[in-house]
Amino acid sequence: MPILEKEPALYPETLLSGYINTCQKTIPADVESVVESDETAQRVWWCVYTRSRQEKALARRLYAQQVPFYLPLVPHHHLYRGRKVKSYVPLFGGYMFMFGDEEERVTALSSNCISRMLPVDDKQQLLHDLLNIHHLIESEAPVTLEQRLEPGRPVRVKSGVMEGTEGVIVERRGQSRLLVAVNFINQGVSVDVEDFMVEPL
C-alpha cells in the first residue's frame, strides 16, 4: 500500500514527546523548563482555528519559520485511482496549537490560513491534554474522534503501549472506552479499553 509522506506535525520534536508523567497530573519540570526558558519567555500557547483544510499548509509554514506548534495527525486509509493509500489527516479538523510570541502570531496570521487564534490561559491543562493525545497517537491504537464529552470516572492506563495515559471511562455501544480530551476545544478521542488495563485516579 502506498504511503503518503507524513508532514511535520510537531516542532520542535521535544516540545511534547517523552514528557508524560506516569505518576501525577502536573507537568514535569523538564516541560516547564522548555516552556519557561529565556528563549521562550515571551511565547504563549495559542489555539489556532484554521480555514477549511488549511491545517497542513499552516504547519508547513510554521515549520519553515521554526515556530513551535503541534498538529495532531492520525493515519487514514482511502482509495485513490483504485489503489489503497495511507495518508495522515488532522485529528481535530480545523484545530492546531501554536507556541509563539506576538511577532510569530502576526506572521502566522499573514499566512491567510487562519480564521482566528485564541490565547490559552491554563497552559498546564493544555499541555497535560496534548501530552496525553500525543502519547495515544504514538501508541498507534485505533482512535475514534469524540466531540461529545461526557462525565465519567477518571483513570490512568497501568501498562502497555498506552501506559501513563490519563482519561475518562465512557460507554459507547455497550463497550468501555478510554476518552482522552483536549478540554480547551471540548473534543477528544477514545480507544477500546478493558478494566484490567486501568486504575482510578
The tally of helices reads: 4
How would a textbook summarize the main sheet?
Answer: 6 strands, antiparallel
Succession of helices and strands = EHEHEEEEHEHEEEEEE
The number of distinct β-strands equals 13
Strand content: 35-45%
Could you provide a short overview of the structure?
This protein is α+β, with helices and mostly antiparallel strands. It is 21% helix and 35% strand.
Structure description:
This protein is α+β, with helices and mostly antiparallel strands and 201 residues long. It contains four helices and 13 strands. The protein has a six-stranded antiparallel beta sheet with strand order 8-12-11-10-9-13, covered by helices on one side. Strands 1-3-6-2-7 form a five-stranded antiparallel beta sheet, with helices on one face. Strand 9 (153-157) and strand 10 form a beta hairpin. The longest helix is centred in the middle third of the chain and has 16 residues, at 123-138. It is globular, with a radius of gyration of 17 Å. Residues 18-36 have low confidence and may be disordered.
List keywords for this structure.
single chain, 201 residues, alpha+beta, five-stranded antiparallel beta sheet
